[in-house]
Amino acid sequence: MKDWRFWLAEQRGTLLAVGIFVMMFIIYSSNHPAGFSPNVVQTAANKGVLLAFVAMAQALVVITAGIDLSVGMIFTLTNCLASWVVVGSPLQVAMGVIVVLGVGSLCGAINGAIVIYGRLQPIVATIATGAVYFGIALALRPTPGGGVDETLADAMTGRVFGVVPASLVVLAAVVAVVWVPFSRSVTGRAAYATGSSEAAAYMSGVPIRRAKMAAYTLSGLLASIGGLFLTFFTYTGDAAYASGNAYTLFSIAAVVLGGVSLFGGKGSAIGAIFGALAFRTIGDLLFVFDFDPLWQPLFQGVVLLLAVSLGAFGLFRVRNRLDWFG
């Protein structure tokens, strides 16, 4: 197979997610009363990056053939924590951001340690840890409140040069600093190998434990970045159980929509990002076309099902599991 055909086959899911997002956003912006304007793009970006960070977090774990049902609760916990510590002088704000990101990474590392050394199924382990993380969030913020440094929050949610949403710039920077080095490293390749076939990876001497630990730790870090941005957008912390659960479920939907295989070993965090943006745009379309709120969940589910089904057509050509990864 020629190089470009191999690349195209490898990136099929990501390219499909990009195409779906672009098509939906064109329909959305062309029917929006304000049209395609910086304000419309900024609003859409600020809503989309929250799910994009959580979807990236989920994608890293799913690539190893696991699943993290605590990402939404890490997202909620770090939102509540940020409303306590990201305040004060510039030095205190900087230290607060470091603390929030450190706590998110620690939560992810705890998940990884339980799965790797406790030998529990990821779905069971992360349900349990998610409940613990939400309990801590509730202890921090029994009622919504707190604050955040407004200068930093406005900078992170505003526009660069008056045009490009700052949140998208940060998202691109996180991809460049976290995802690109991870995916190209030995540990990242080991994560893909583990997801494709853990037994074969073990027999080949692949560092499975290191790959899983890195995936779970980075997952917690990315979820905490999302929680930090939620604090920037809302200027408050809120231990909302429904919100944490929703982001967990939506992250799984975004991952699938972005072409990441739930069997592991296939896909990318970039695909998950565009899956998240496409998923958010579905909700924006419902707003623009003024759908009855009672019908919105049904319509959203149907559109998501159709979009995911497009990426599943390749399964009909698969004769065995090796063909799927070929």
Verbal overview:
The protein has 326 residues and is an all-alpha fold. It has a single domain, classed as ABC transporter involved in vitamin B12 uptake, BtuC (Orthogonal Bundle), CATH 1.10.3470. The chain is built from 15 helices and 2 strands. The chain has a two-stranded antiparallel sheet with strand order 1-2. The longest helix has 28 residues, at 90-117. The N and C termini lie close together (11 Å).
Quick structural summary:
This protein is mostly helical and 326 residues long. The protein contains 15 helices and two strands. Helix 3 crosses helix 13.
Q: Which structural class should the secondary elements be placed in?
A: mainly alpha
**Regions with pLDDT < 50 over 5+ consecutive residues?**
none
Rounded to the nearest angstrom, the distance between the terminal CA atoms is 11 Å
> Can you name the CATH architecture?
Orthogonal Bundle
Question: How would a crystallographer describe the biggest sheet?
Answer: 2 strands, antiparallel
Kindly identify the CATH topology: ABC transporter involved in vitamin B12 uptake, BtuC
- What's the level 1 CATH class? Mainly Alpha
> What's the number of domains?
1
Order of helices and strands: HHHHHHHEEHHHHHHHH
Task: Assess the beta-strand content as a share of residues.
Answer: under 5%
Mean pLDDT, to the nearest integer, reads: 87
Strand count: 2
